[in-house]
Amino acid sequence: MVKKLTIVTHIIAWAIAAIWIIPFLGVFMASIRPFNEIRNGWWNLHTFTPTLEGFFKAERYLRTISLSRSILNSFIVAVPATFIPILVAALAAYAFARFKFPTRDLLFLVIVLLQTIPQQAVIVPLFNITKNVGLFNTYIGLILVHTAFGLPWIILFLRNFFSTLPVEIEEAARIDGASYWKILYKIVLPMSLPALASVIALQFVWVWNDFFFALILIQAPQMKLSTQVIATMATDRFTLDWNMISAASITVMVVPIIIYAALQRYYVRGLVAGAVKG
Amino acid sequence: MNRNKGLTTNQWIAIAVAIIIVIAAVFGAWYLYFQPTGPKKLTVISLWSGTEEDNFLQVLGNFTENTGIESRHIGYSTQELKITIPTQLAANASIFDLAIAPWPADILNWANKGYLVEVTDLIDASKYPAGFINPVKDSTGKIWAVPFKASAKPGFWYRKSIWQTNGWTVPTATTNYTQFKALLATIKADGEANITGFKAPIASGDTVGWPLSDTTEAFIMGLGGYQLQEELIAGSINWTDPEVKNVFSNLTELLNSGYFGTPAEAWTDPIPDLWDGKYAMYFQGSFITAQPTVLNQSDFAFFPFPGWNGETNGVAGSVDYVVLPKYTEKMTDAKKLLEYLAGADAQEIMVGLGGFLATNVDVPASAYTTIDLTVLDFISKSSVHIVGDLDDSIGGTFQTTFWSQLRLLWTDPATRADLDAFLEKLQEFAP
Amino acid sequence: MHRRTKKQRLRIRRYLTPFFFLLPALFFIVIFVLFPIVNTIYLSFVQENGSLGLANYQEVISRSEFINYGRPITAGPPYGAFIHNLIWIALHLPLSVFFGLLLAVLLRDVKGGAVIKSIIFLAMIIPMVVGGVMLRFMYNDDAGVVNGFLRLIGLGNMTRSWLAYANTCLLGLIVGTVWIWTGFCMVVYSAGLQGIPVELYEAAKIDGASRWRTFWRITIPQLRSATIVVVTMTLLWVLKVFDLVFIEFGGPGGSASVMAFQMYLDAFYSFNFGTASVWATLLTVMTFGIAAYMVKRMAES
C-alpha cells in the first residue's frame, strides 16, 4: 500500500527522532564539556570548551579500580557468558528439534516458561550457593549464573531456528553414518550463522548491561564490572559531577552500541523472533 | 559405528587454531583475573572521597614513611559501604584490612556476630572522651572500634559578607526561636526582592538524606533539648510522643512556609549557591570547612541553632571509628595502622589539614585552624552537650528509613499534613 | 540380570543421544535456575522460629511498603511498591504500545525511516543504570533539559528537580522507561506490518475503503499476534524494573519503589531472607501468570 506522504508526516517523524536522541545528546555534551559550563544547561553554547577531563576523572574515580579496568572486567564476564550458553543451548535445542522422546514437550514448555522469571527470584539461593562452593566474588560464578539464565531463551530461539532447517541434509549425512554430534557441529551450526549472530548480539548486550547479578555476586572493588562503577558514581554520598558521570556513561554504553551497530539486523531479528507468525 | 571419513588436514589445523585461541582466551582471562590482587597492600576502606580522602592519604603516606608498610585507601559511597562491610564479613572474606565507619550500632552488631577483632588492648581508652568510647563498648566492657575522627554539626553556616551586605542580624547565644523565625521571614522577603536567583533562606542537603537528618536533629535538640535526642536514640521515648510531634510540627511549619530549598544532588552542591547568596544558611557538619568551594575561610562562620531560650544545648557529633575484621590476612600490619590512627600524631596531621576534629585528647588546641577552633570552642562549652548522631547511633534499617522518610517530608505536602502517620512509620523501625 | 531385548536396547540407545545432548543444559538450569526458584518459594514460607507458615506473607502484605494503606489517593505517591508496579504497568503499557505502533506506521515509508528507527531503538541497547543516570541528568533542577524546555516555553515557575519530589519521582521514571522501551514495540510492529499481505490492502482499495477504515479493519486485526507479543513482553519487562529504581534508591520515602527493589532491601539490607523471598515469590507469580498466558496464546495461534 502506498501512502501519499505529506511534508507534515516527514516533519513529525524527524521531530520525534530529535526528541528521542536529546538525552543522548545531553549526555554526550556533558561528557566533553567542563562541569561549570553545563551547570545551567548543556544547550548553552556561548562558551564551549571541549575537554577530555571528564573521561580522566571517570577513569580515576574509584582509586582501586579504573573505569577501563571495569570495562575489561565486563568483557571477561560477557564473552564467556555469551559463547558458553550458545554451545550448551545448541546441543539442547538440537535435541528438542530433531528428537522425539518422552517428556520432550513438557520439558520444553518448562524451559520456555523459565525465561520469564525475575532475577530477584533466584538471587538469594544463588548467593548462598556461590558462597558455599567458593564461587562468590569470582567471575566464573557470575559467568555460570549468566549462562544458566540465558539458556532458556537461547534454547527456544535455536530450537525454533533448527526446526526451519531442511531435514533432508541431516538425514543424508545420517545415512552416510555421521554421528549426531558431527551433524550438529558440521552441518547444522554452519547453516545457523544468522541465528547465532542474533544470539550473540542479544546475549552479549544483555550480560554487559546486567547490574543486579553483578551487584550481589561481585563485591571485591577491583573486580567490579562497569555497570557497578556507574551505579556507585550515581549513588555516591559526595559530589555528583555530571561531567564525570556522563563521560563514564558514554564509555560504558559505547560497547553495546558498537555491537548493535555491527549486528543490528541480527539483533532486531532476534528480538522479534516469534512476533509475527507465532 | 562406521567412521568413514576422517577430517582433512585443513580442518584439523582449523580446529587446532580454534582450540588454541579458546585456551589462550581462557588463560588470558584467568591471568588477568589474578592480576588485580597483585601484591596486596594494606587496605583501608571508608566513606571519604575528594578532599577528605586526599587528606587521609597524607596520613597513610606518613605511616608508610614511618613503618615502610604500604597501604591504600578505597572510598565507598554510603550505601555501598553499608552493604560491603557486612556482606564481606558474612562471606568470610575480607577485601579490606581496616574499615572506617561512623555507625557504632552496626559496629556492635558485627562484633556480636564475631566478625571483628577486639581492640581493648590496642589503645589507651583514657585518651578518648567517654562519650566516644561507650557507643562501641559492649556489655562485657570490650571495646570493638577505635575512635579516629570526630565531627560535629555545630550549626547553620553562612557567609559573613552576604549577611552584612543585606543587613541580616546573625543570631547570637541569646536569640530565641521566635526571633529566628522572624529572621527567616525577613531573609526570604529580602532575598526574593533583591537577590537574583535567590532560592530559599535555608539550603537543604542532598538526596541521600543524611544532611536532612542532621538538620532535623538540630531541631530535635534545639526545640526539645539534648535529652530528647538521647531518649530517641535509646528508644525510651516514642516518635509518636507529643514532645516529638511538637518538634516536627515546628519543622513542618518552616517547610510549609518555603524556607527550605530543594534537596540537591550532592551535599556540596548548595555551597556555591550559598557563596553567591542564593541561600542564606546551610546546616552542616564541621567538615564543610575543608571544601574547596568555601572560597574564603575568614568569610565563613556558623551560628548554633536558636532554641526556645536561646542557643541550643545539644550538638550532634559523630565519630568515625576504625574496625579490624577477623579475616584480614595482614593482622600485624593492620594492628599497627590501627594503633597509629588512634594516636595523637596521626590525628594532629589531619587536624592541621582542616575539617577534622581529633578524638585523642592529646592533640593540642594549637594544631587547629581558626575556623575549626571556633567549632571546638563551641562544643567544649559547658552548656553544650555532645550527643551521638541520631541515625548513625541507631543505624541499620532505621537509618535508611529515616533518611527516606525525611526526603518525603521535605518534598511531599501530604506527608507534612499527616505527621501522625509519618511518626508512626519512624516508630516502626525505631529501637 | 534380566537381559534386555535388542529392541529395548535400541530404544534406550535412541534416547541416549538426546539425553546426553540435553544434559549440560539441564545441569545448568536445574542448579542455577530451577532449584533457586523452588528454594526461594520455600524460603518465603520459613518463619522466624523455623516452622513453615504464612507469617512472612502476612508481614509483607500488611506493610505500608507493600500498599500504603493510610495514604489518600489524591496525595500522590508513595502508594506502596505493589501499587507502584501496577501504576507502572497502567501507564507504561499503553504509552509504549501506542507510540510503538504509531512510530512503526509513521516510519514505514518516510525517507530515512530506517535511520530514525535505529535512533529510537538505541535506547534499548544502553545499560539501564546508564538510563537511570541520563534520566537524573535530564530532570535536574539546573542542568536538566526538561526544566530547560519548561523555561523555554515560559513555564519557568514549574521547574523543579523532578526526581527529588515524592509525587513526581515515579512518573519521571515511568516516562524514562517509555522512552527506553518504545523501540521494542516499534520494531515488533514494524515486522508485523511487513508481514501483512499486500493483497488485502489492494482489495480494500478496490472496495473504496478510506485510509482510516483500512487501518482499523485490516491493519489492526492483522497485527493481533504482534500485539500479543508486545503486550506480554512489555508486561514482563516492566515488572522486572530494578536498575532505575536502584539509582534513585527507591525515591523519597519509597515513592518510586517497586517489588524488585523491596526484595533487594529486605535481602541485602535487612538480611531478612524470608520476607525478601515473599517479594520475590509474589513477583514470580505475576510474571509466571503472564508467561503462561503468553504460551497459551502462542499455542493457540
3D structure, described in words:
The complex is a heterotrimer of chains A (278), B (431) and C (301). Chain A has 278 residues and is an all-alpha fold. Chain A has helices at 7-32, 35-38, 53-60, 67-98, 104-114, 120-132, 139-164, 167-175, 180-191, 193-209, 212-217, 226-234, 242-262, 264-272. Chain A is built from 14 helices and no strands. Chain B has two domains: 42-152 and 318-380, D-Maltodextrin-Binding Protein, domain 2 (3-Layer(aba) Sandwich), CATH 3.40.190; 154-316 and 389-429, Periplasmic binding protein-like II (D-Maltodextrin-Binding Protein, domain 2, 3-Layer(aba) Sandwich). Helices cover 49% and strands 14% of the residues of chain B. Chain B has helices spanning 9-34, 50-67, 78-90, 104-112, 130-133, 160-166, 177-194, 210-224, 226-234, 242-256, 270-276, 331-342, 344-353, 370-380, 390-394, 396-411, 413-417, 419-429, and strands spanning 42-46, 71-75, 98-101, 146-153, 155-159, 200-203, 279-284, 300-303, 306-307, 310-311, 314-323, 357-358, 385-388. In chain B, strands 1, 2, 3, 4, 11, 12 and 13 form a seven-stranded mixed sheet that branches. A four-stranded mixed sheet of chain B has the order 6-7-5-8. In chain B, strands 9-10 form a two-stranded antiparallel ribbon. In chain B, helix 8 crosses helix 9 and helix 8 (210-224) packs across helix 10. By secondary structure, chain C is mainly alpha-helical. Chain C has one domain (20-300): Orthogonal Bundle (MetI-like fold). The longest helix of chain C has 40 residues, at 6-45. The mean pLDDT of chain C is 88. The chains are: A mainly alpha (278), B alpha/beta (431), C mainly alpha (301). At the A-C interface, helix 1, helix 4, helix 5, helix 6 and helix 7 of A face helix 1, helix 4, helix 5, helix 7 and helix 8 of C.
Question: Layout of SSEs?
Answer:
The complex is a heterotrimer of chains A (278), B (431) and C (301).
Chain A: H1 7-32, H2 35-38, H3 53-60, H4 67-98, H5 104-114, H6 120-132, H7 139-164, H8 167-175, H9 180-191, H10 193-209, H11 212-217, H12 226-234, H13 242-262, H14 264-272
Helix pairs in contact in A: 1-13, 3-13, 4-7, 4-10, 5-7, 7-10, 8-9, 10-13, 10-14, 12-13
Chain B: H1 9-34, E1 42-46, H2 50-67, E2 71-75, H3 78-90, E3 98-101, H4 104-112, H5 130-133, E4 146-153, E5 155-159, H6 160-166, H7 177-194, E6 200-203, H8 210-224, H9 226-234, H10 242-256, H11 270-276, E7 279-284, E8 300-303, E9 306-307, E10 310-311, E11 314-323, H12 331-342, H13 344-353, E12 357-358, H14 370-380, E13 385-388, H15 390-394, H16 396-411, H17 413-417, H18 419-429
Parallel strand pairs in B: 1-2, 1-3, 6-7, 11-13
Antiparallel strand pairs in B: 3-11, 4-11, 4-12, 5-7, 5-8, 9-10
Helix pairs in contact in B: 2-13, 8-9, 8-10, 8-16, 16-18
Chain C: H1 6-45, H2 55-62, H3 81-106, H4 113-125, H5 128-139, H6 145-152, H7 166-194, H8 198-206, H9 211-222, H10 224-239, H11 243-248, H12 259-268, H13 273-300
